[in-house]
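Thread: quick sanity check before group meeting

JM: Hey all, I'm pulling together slides for Thursday and realized we never actually wrote out the predicted structure for the chain we discussed last week. Dropping the sequence here so it's in one place. If anyone has concerns about the input, flag it before I start.
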Amino acid sequence: MQVVKKILIIIIFANIFQSCFSQKKLIGKYIRDDASLSLQDIGSKYLFNADKTFIQTDFFHLEKKEIFEGTYKLNKDFLILHYKPRIQQNNNYKFIKKRKISEEKNNNYLFTKMKLTNKKLREGEIELLVYDKKGKLLMGFSSNKNGEFPFLSLYDTKIGCFIFSSLVYQEVKIPAEELFGYLSEIDVLLEKTLTKYSQRNDTVKYLINSINNNKLELKNIKTKEKIILIKE
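JM (edit): ok, ran it. Output follows.
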């Protein structure tokens, strides 16, 4: 019995040591080095921090890039990435009209009209995306030639925010709580940017095929995609 206990203790400490060692090797900057990138991609970089957060940067042509953020976890032979949405918190919008809706309709109603102020923005293929409070996309709209989006008349307490998204301009977020209970008209002001902050909100699980001080070889459990990360 004592022998069995000693063996179990050794196994437990070995697993703890292996986990800590792998964690130590993972921390740092990595460059994606494989042939699975799309034709539009130039490359990707990953930064794994000691506080279990990570930043993924995908590079595209014309100096464009998309930044993903989230947390990561090492679980035995698996690397798990939890992506979390982030938007630059610039209030690039202003209320032209904001009138309280009569009480009999309560605060769960939303009536709003949104438009693009700058005429040049109307050529940028701006999309109005509606997300629920859990970050799930519910619906999307495009503007007309005058930069106006469809008049919204909604009754849904699940709606969390409205996002104006484009590959060319910085994303703008309007929390739904600022709109519900009001009849409002909003001008949206977008700034041109080459950096896009991703709204990805999901989890990806990778099998760690191999890991050492210089290289990390992964395989996506769902898609079977193989990824090689080289440490800088």
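AS: nice. The radius of gyration is 23 Å. The first helix runs from residue 2 to 26.
JM: adding both to the slides.
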